[in-house]
Amino acid sequence: MQQLDISVVVPLKNEEESLPELAAWIARVMEENNFSYEVWMVDDGSTDESWLVIQRLAAENPRIKGIKFQRNYGKSAALNEGFRKAQGNVVITMDADLQDSPDEIPGLYSMIVNDGYDLVSGWKKVRYDNTLTKNIPSKLFNWATVKMSGIKLHDFNCGLKSYRKKVVKTIEVYGEMHRYIPVIAKWSGFRKIGEKVVEHRKRKYGSTKFGLERFINGFLDLASITFVGRFGKRPMHFFGALGTLFFLLGFIIAGYLAFAKVFFLQYKMTERPIFFLALLLLIIGSQLFLTGFIAEMVGRNAPERNAYLVEETLDHT
Ligand code: UDP
Ligand code: MG
């Protein structure tokens, strides 16, 4: 099979009106730039006619390919499935709602192929979404993600991104982790992560699929991804350290109370608030310690417990 330059992965849910325009626009850009390409449209459990539209588009242009999920699994799952299928040297993801412009494809492609980036994230510098519910919370979210991940991007959640093929074949996107793909890529050892200012457009048809709950979920996901990245392979270092600290504190306080009781005859030890603090610390401390043990045992059984990536091997024998 001929080597493909670009795979475009489009996760979509109920975007029937946008798809024909999107497909035509992508095809036009690809032809103008002489790219060999494929487009994977991943129908994430649409309840409108999206799949029919995809079938029609695929019949007209064999480079357009489709996958249909049995039900709605979320944008991360859709992206992940597209990544499994993609064959292009560069993989470009974009939203289906025409908010991302296919005109950005050549620039994003070139940054991977010519400038050596592993991943390039779009940056919607000028944004056409609701200021109060999207733009301001998103600034906060990006700020927190930069602080926790150390990756300097302005717009982590931008749907428009390009990847070196190796990146998408390595990482796994699950849950709602599509917001943190650069973080996942960094933890997998892909360090050259860049950003490119991209044009953003108003949603032309349909409506947004993400409500306000995404901010709570987003921050929880950031907490888990940071935790998994740092301690996923050695949970005892986290739980054990905290547990020991708590337990020791409780032990010292209890020791002091016992000492006071024996030597200064303070019999009413249980009436001192600090007694309950000591109890609490002892219990929480041992709980944390046990959690650490259990987490270690879970980690031992995980199939990816040894999921390191070898970049090169030298053996001259
Ligand atoms: N999407 C999806 N599965 C979902 C929700 C959304 O595949 O469960 C797709 C959606 O069709 C669109 C992209 O993800 O192509 C981004 O969604 P949306 O435009 O609603 O997000 P926003 O731009 O408002 O952040
Ligand atoms: Mg959108």
Task: Report on the architecture of this protein.
The chain has ten helices and seven strands. The model has no long low-confidence stretch (mean pLDDT 92). The protein has helices spanning 19-32, 50-60, 75-85, 105-113, 131-149, 165-170, 181-187, 213-231, 235-264, 273-301, and strands at residues 6-12, 37-43, 64-68, 90-93, 119-123, 161-164, 193-197. Helix 1 (19-32) links the parallel strand 1 (6-12) and strand 2. It has 317 residues and is an alpha/beta fold. Helix 5 (131-149) packs parallel to helix 8 (213-231) and helix 9 packs antiparallel against helix 10 (273-301). The chain folds into two domains: 6-231, Alpha-Beta Complex (Spore Coat Polysaccharide Biosynthesis Protein SpsA, Chain A); 235-299. The two termini are 34 Å apart. A seven-stranded mixed β-sheet has the order 3-2-1-4-6-5-7, with helices on both faces. Bound molecules: uridine-5'-diphosphate (UDP) and magnesium ion. The site of uridine-5'-diphosphate has 17 residues, from strand 1 and helix 3.
Features:
single chain; 317 residues; alpha/beta; Spore Coat Polysaccharide Biosynthesis Protein SpsA, Chain A; 2 domains; 12% strand
Secondary-structure arrangement, i.e. CATH architecture of the largest domain: Alpha-Beta Complex
Structural class label: alpha/beta
Tally of individual domains? 2
Proportion of residues in β-strands: 5-15%
CATH fold label of the largest domain? Spore Coat Polysaccharide Biosynthesis Protein SpsA, Chain A
Average pLDDT value?
92
Per DSSP, the total helix count is: 10
Q: Write out the strand line-up for the largest beta sheet, numbering strands in chain order.
A: 3-2-1-4-6-5-7
How far is the first residue's CA from the last residue's CA? Answer: 34 Å
The coarse silhouette is: elongated
Question: What is the H/E order?
Answer: EHEHEHEHEHEHHEHHH
Total E-strand runs: 7
The CATH class of the largest domain is identified as Alpha Beta
Helical fraction: 40-55%
Radius of gyration (CA) equals: 25 Å
Question: What ligands does this structure carry?
Answer: uridine-5'-diphosphate, magnesium ion
Which consecutive residue ranges, at least 5 long each, have pLDDT under 50?
Answer: none
Biggest β-sheet description? 7 strands, mixed
Per CATH, the superfamily of the largest domain is Spore Coat Polysaccharide Biosynthesis Protein SpsA, Chain A
